[in-house]
């Protein structure tokens, strides 16, 4: 498998994992935070003070 296809597959998995994590947080209100990483990018799903789920995506240093 070439490098570009590996990156594409890994990115699809990253996006799929974020949505599965979001659904998990909807089903389980006791979860406060989930973190997902892809190469130099990181996405955090976190509950705010109103217990709503917020997405935060930033580049890792």
> Order of SSEs, N→C?
HEEE
Category by helix and strand content: alpha+beta
**What's the rounded overall pLDDT mean?**
93
The total of beta strands comes to 3
The span between the termini is: 28 Å
Shape: elongated
Content of β-strand = 25-35%
Whole-angstrom Rg: 13 Å
Largest sheet: 3 strands, antiparallel
Q: Count of helical segments? A: 1
Number of domains: 1
Can you give a write-up of this model?
The chain is an alpha+beta fold and 61 residues long. It has one domain. The protein is 41% helix and 33% strand. It contains one helix and three strands. A three-stranded antiparallel sheet has the order 1-2-3, covered by helices on one side. β1 and β2 form a beta hairpin. The longest helix is centred in the first third of the chain and has 25 residues. The chain is elongated and about 45 Å long. The N and C termini lie far apart (28 Å). The model has no long low-confidence stretch (mean pLDDT 93).
Which features characterize this protein?
elongated, alpha+beta, 61 residues, 3-stranded antiparallel sheet, 3 strands, single chain
Could you give a short description of this structure?
This protein is α+β, with helices and mostly antiparallel strands.
